[in-house]
User: Fold this.
Amino acid sequence: MKRRRDLLVRTLSCLRCFFSLPKKNPNYTTKRKRAMEDSTSSSSERYCYNPILRWNPQVEDYFIKAYGSDHFSRISKALARPSCYSCIRVNTLKSTSDAVIQKLRTIIKEEEEDANVNGSESESEIGRISKCQLPGLEDYVVFFRGSGPHVIDYARPPKEIIVSRKCAEAVLRGAQVYVPGVIACSAHVEKGDVVAVSVGVEQPALDGGGWGIGITRGTVLLGLDTDPYYFERNGLYIGQGTAMMSRAGMFRVSQGIAVDMSNRVYKLPSFHDVLEGEIFLQNLPSIVTAHALDPQKGERILDMCAAPGGKTTAIAMLMKDEGEVVAVDRSHNKVLDIQKLAAEMGLNCITAFKLDALKSVWRRNDSDITADLCCSEETDDVPIQSSDLLGSHVERNSPIIMEGMSTEKSGKESVSNEKANERTYVSKADIRKNIRRMRNGSGRNQCNGGRVQNSKGFSPNSFDRVLLDAPCSALGLRPRLFAGEDTIESLRNHATYQRRMFDQAVQLARPGGIIVYSTCTINPGENEALVRYALDRYTFLSLAPQHPRIGGPGLVGHCEFPDGYIEEWLRPGEEELVQRFDPSSPLDTIGFFIVKFIVGPKDAQFGKSCASS
Assistant:
């Protein structure tokens, strides 16, 4: 018996050593607890929103020289997050701020009551609506304060959906997840499932040839570290929602809502199809830009790059719809958008034309005279637009007529087309293109079917005020999750393009008139450098004060690049006459820049150079 008992004790001792039984291992509980804490910590770091905006190294160095390392770091952090509020411009020709606030509160109350009926309780958003208190904007600007960032309790591990960067940026501004934005999805996702939404941001290509997303659309996510972009998606979770269709449906259909976002990192309202014609969702600096132009009743004003029409309609509203606002854009569909917005807001003083801003100044030559004579004989019954009387030379447009085509040329081409029709041949490339168009819908360059008017340009000195909200690098828009594709060369190309458009604006503004130039970028080369170019080249231009002034000062000095190029900015005393909106400032806007010029008397030499150019 004694030998059997000793054998049993030795056996139990061996088992304790082999399995490290917790009762005999005081460190076991501590180690396990530490491992669980590490796992929880890593999960909290992964399932959160803490983006790091990546830049081209040369561009980053350039901005650090301009702003300083700490300031640029704050700007980058702010750009990767949405503004904490939405800015609503009220159409005072149809409503008032008080009436709009009351209607929005009623809509929100009804939505909250519906949500409570469905068992979802949330903090009331009625108190988040308020009038803007900034001077000059109190009567027609309303703020809707959002909230965030919120900490979201994701399931571990969650069913996941990866969306594209552009889709994620829209979701952070209040949109839903639509089918085209879905890249990858967990297996066995069914309609009604709760899914976590993360972002696939561009990464450097393995061959060093730029940036891209190395994920095939429709990829199955297994929740393992072998999933595409598993580690790159750490800190890039933007919320969770309810799947509105199965995984198979998301990659089978071409449109529709894929995920209804019920729990967002940033909660901002979506005003899609809300109070159409009474309100317009617009960034605060864009509203200030229209104010800086200071349009007056009865004036003739040009908006050179007008789409989608936000500033155009703001100008018309400030003029009380009395005068003429000419809006131009080179895209057919964008001109239609301007016309649609003007009609929704009940504005009659806006005339929209299809025109490249680089060809805004009309040059009359012999072929134009011949074309005008021919057209006058054939279109006597067509009413002349008011713009025609004031220097705009317009021709009626149909989808198959090219801008600026003369009658003689079109006649010759019609004969050749008749011969070509006798032996019509459709290539395989055209067949494939038509198939893609049927599958993907009309592209950006495809006509929506509406009619617009083409313009050959406008006479010099024919506008009282000119707004040039120039196409730019858009490095001030937020939220922005990627900025690596912009290079020093591309930024310089933007600046060159903008100077050419500004040259057109200077010719079109009459002596004594006003030019306002604006961009939505933080790049000094497209902002302060253009001011330097304008003041040095056109001595009859001078900087004018702006009202209201709520932005910060401009950048003074210059920047010398490694290739020896020196970029000149503002000189001391000029910085307070421009407005620079800093995304990292307490105002919490997008990055934006506004400058206002007064056009002085133009000398005869300038007129001759314009005529010969």
About this structure: Residues 271 and 602 are 46 Å apart (CA to CA). The two ends are 117 Å apart (CA to CA).
